[in-house]
């Protein structure tokens, strides 16, 4: 089992990166905003996979939703960067 303090620290870092991404989005720095969103999303994915490591159905749902969001981020990047 992973240390709960490490999970809390990862959650805090993920939320801070999300806020930084929102700030960059407001400043219209799209590449930086998308980068921070993607890193925050990846950290959240790790946290959820650790929390639900014994529940295969939940892990599949989390990973599929992660893939859908990553595809949406890539599409948004190409649409907004034109």
UniProtKB/TrEMBL annotation:
Transmembrane regions listed in the UniProt entry: 7-28, 34-53, 60-80
Claim: Transmembrane is one of the keywords in the record: yes
Keywords, in A-Z order: Membrane, Transmembrane, Transmembrane helix
Descriptive protein name: Uncharacterized protein
């Amino acid at each position: 089992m992973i240390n709960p303090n490490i999970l809390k620290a990862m959650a805090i870092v993920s939320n801070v990166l999300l806020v930084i991404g929102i700030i960059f989005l407001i400043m219209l720095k799209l590449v930086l905003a998308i980068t921070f969103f993607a890193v925050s999303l990846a950290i959240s994915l790790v946290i959820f996979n650790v929390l639900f490591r014994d529940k295969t159905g939940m892990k599949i749902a989390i990973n599929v939703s992660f893939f859908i969001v990553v595809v949406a981020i890539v599409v948004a990047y190409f649409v907004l960067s034109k």
